[in-house]
Amino acid sequence: MHLKRRNFLLLLGSGASAIVASSVPGCDGRKPNLSSTGSSPSPSSSKTGLNLSGIDEIGFRPVSGPMPLPHDPRSPSEQIQAYQAYEVLDELVLPEDFEYEVIATWGDRVGNSRFGYNNDYLSFIETGENLGYLTVNFEYISGRTWMETYSEVLGKSLPFAEVTAAIDTSPINAYALPDGDPLKAKIQQICQEALLDQGLGVITLNRDDRGKWVRQPSQADRRVTGISGLTDECSLKATGPATAVFRKTQGQGYIDGLGDRIVGTFANCAGGTTPWGTVLSAEENFQAQVPEPVFPDGTSAQPSQLPFYMDEKNIYGQGNVFGLAGNKYGWIVEIDPANPNDCGTKHTWLGRYRHEAVGVRVEAGKPIAFYSGCDRRGGHIYKFVSRQSASDPQDKANSQLLADGTLYAAKFQPDGTGTWIPLAPTTPIDPDFPSNIWGNSILLPSPPAGGYIKAEQDYGIKGFKERLKTLGDIYTGTEVEKQGAILIDAHYAANAVGATCAARPEDTEIAPDGSLYISFTSGSPGDSGGPDKRIFKTPTGEPHEYGWIMHLVETDNNPGALSFTWQMMAAGGEPAQGGWGFANPDNILLDPRGNLWMVTDMSTSKMNQVVPSRVDRSGQPIDPSKLSGTFGNNSLWYFPLQGESAGDAYLFAIGPMECEMTGPYFSRDGSSLFLAVQHPGESGGIRRDGAIETREFEMLTPTGEGFRQTRQVPIGSNWPDSQANSSPKPSVVAIYRRDLGSIV
């Protein structure tokens, strides 16, 4: 699947010389831990990183990961010798001459609440030379580790054992239990704490006399949680056509009786920052907390459709006991960090689906364009275009433009062209055939019963098109209510009109020239769908687990254009197979000098999993998707865009055990890199007494020579405290050069 690295970076660099602000994305009284620091421990294969001739140009000595990379100057035999033994560290590994400090960690006080769990997207809006607001998303809780560490970290207990024993192995519709039921009260207690640890938060930072960023609590510091508005006055607002559905007093499905008032926000993954100083927070995997399916009138499935469940490792259906309406989650939330009274607004014209990030394009005299991807197998790329144009990109009145416009979904053609399909009642029905989709299935809306059906045969699509002609034939109500129902059911409506099923689209990043870069995390199919075989494939015509980066250019560079061109510019995977040495690209960003940075998103279950052989018992090559363990822990990569090093990928950081690093964001002067480290120890929990395993891996050099690697792998995590048997805690850090010079 060889894709020319140099071609990608030269194209990216063509407009990357001048970055604008809008393009840089994706308790209990305890003081925040500002003393935890880390520097540059590097795996044992190369304690100080590789000795590369281009170090002066890229500005740091890359850390050494678990596999040799194409820029390694050593011969294959020397590489094999260097990588035969490798030690994975439970640490945030940085290049020499770099260090980090913990800014905030789970449980720290924020306003009248606490810093949440699994911090994701970060946005740092500087209000002065040494002051600013850091907005943080809190995506979800990692069931096992959250329950294992809750009491120690927060100094109180929850009835985990009692509830687990009471519900045994069967989910329970806690919403239907009588209000006086003791079990319901215990479930409410657990779910309230779990939802409290999700949502988003704002903390104020200032630069101290050392030149480091530290907490400086202010009136702006606050949390908007998964239950905000349930018992306080901090409910969220909504704009756009879906509010007509929210205000219904009767309908086909469940109505919460709150009108267009919304309780909370959760599943807050990546996001974006507007040039007028607000932050966009993307609700992603909401379907784990509330029902996703809706009826043709846009009303929700009953809470009973996603009952509450928990065992020793998992907690699902946290919204069930509170009767949260599923159609109110899966949106983009806008919040002004400087306004302490702002609890957030969900702009329904941006669509309801499993949002990942938001690419923001704002130019004076043109309509606003927001790009986002649906991070599911078979999800789509979407674009919202405002009806009116922006006059001043920095005017906070631009938020009002998000209340009126059109949502489009992308249709990619194999020849490198594409079109934007409006999600409107008049748009014709034209689904793709399952035979064009990896996994041979596509999910379609199912009127009049509601929900969706799985189409697995092409003849089923023909019947669907004969029965239904436009989206207006699927959804019901007044014209405004129909449009609202379409936006509420955006993923399934996009399937119905033939939007291209994609490969888990994650981040959408706007370059200074207005073009778009999209990271696709994985091209493998799953139970809920898969990507289009004609677009997302290897050169040999196979699905690809390790993802891509795409470059998209609008026709005439017009944000409101209805057509575009696209090109797949980079692929994850092993270098010997044409990849760059990383797996599963996630958040991407352009730094203040126009260089590209990227974090990876391998699933916890795949990291460091043994690869004892590359062939099966019959001697056939193992599916490449089964080789994820070779990539080690999740990581942060740097791609220079100019000079002799352009076209190579350099490993800047490796995360602690079983974590995902997310939300990289630079300070305005480029001297500080904020980074979120979420779910350390997600599978192994607390690392007990330095537990470690020896594992074997069949590896390849970049030129394809095979060798066996013995790898030492910690079991669980103690990060960030890094003390024996300490609890792993999601945290946000700031990374610096030791001399506090510019990182870029």
From TrEMBL:
The lineage of its organism: Bacteria, Bacillati, Cyanobacteriota, Cyanophyceae, Oscillatoriophycideae. Residues 32-51 have a biased composition (Low complexity). The keyword Signal applies. Residues 29-51 are annotated as: Disordered. Residues 1-18 form the signal peptide. It comes from Zarconia navalis LEGE 11467. This is DUF839 domain-containing protein. Keywords: Signal. It comes from the Bacteria.
